[in-house]
Automatic annotation (TrEMBL):
GO MF annotation list: O-methyltransferase activity
PROSITE patterns tied to this protein: SAM_OMT_I
Pfam families: Methyltransf_24
Organism: Oidiodendron maius (strain Zn)
Domain of life: Eukaryota
UniProt entry keywords in alphabetical sequence: Methyltransferase, S-adenosyl-L-methionine, Transferase
Recorded family membership: Belongs to the class I-like SAM-binding methyltransferase superfamily. Cation-dependent O-methyltransferase family.
High-level lineage: Eukaryota, Fungi, Dikarya, Ascomycota, Pezizomycotina
Name assigned to this protein: O-methyltransferase
Amino acid sequence: MSLPPNPVVAPPHVLSLLDRLHDESIKQESVLGSYLSSADGFGDLMRDKFIALDKDKCHFVYQLARAIDARNIVEVGTSFGVSTIYLALALGSNLERSGGKGKVIATEKESTKAAKALQHWREAGDELVTRHIDLREGNLLETLKESVPTLDLLLIDIWAPVALPALKLLEPRMRPGAVVIVDNSISSASRYADLLAHLRSPTNGYINLTLPYSNGLEMSIKF
Ligand SMILES: C[S@@+](CC[C@H](N)C(=O)[O-])C[C@H]1O[C@@H](n2cnc3c(N)ncnc32)[C@H](O)[C@@H]1O
């Protein structure tokens, strides 16, 4: 049986880097097991962990960013920068195809994780990836108060208590038709209860779809 197609347009060294980073993340998560859902010392435990967005979800987000010609993207939760690479590649291809400007705003509160993310982006290539990223280090509820352009796409992959405040902070910056992606919307539905209630409330102007990826992936469009 042939492998499913990979939509990501990138040189072989970037595809190998992404494979390696996903493998490392999966290896860490298999050891973490049930600790992932424990509240005790969660932040400390996660300080040296990837917890990257799954590869098939990254492919979807990449394809989506290409489809909507996303120019301005916020990634709520960057960690070691894996999903950011996909977003930057998609943005770079969009700009190359039809010109203009844009950035992926990446957010990470842990300085060691931000440094590692930067290292991964450099390994992918400054021209191809790093130059498309505006890394905001620190608590995103502060760093995203600084100037944010009109947004096409928002990827929420973050500890649950931060998710809804981040969305509310960014809502005034979202263009009509902007897309919000939330990871683990099935497995973490109870932790994300306030966020999902907000997205699904008929008064807030979103239309929502739960995509059947492992643990769920919510796709919401803001009108
Ligand atoms: C699930 S990981 C992100 C994974 C990343 N999207 C990827 O695919 O590689 C969530 C990250 O959000 C960071 N984080 C949590 N709360 C934050 C906050 N208030 N501000 C900025 N970053 C935060 C954590 O340190 C963690 O690295």
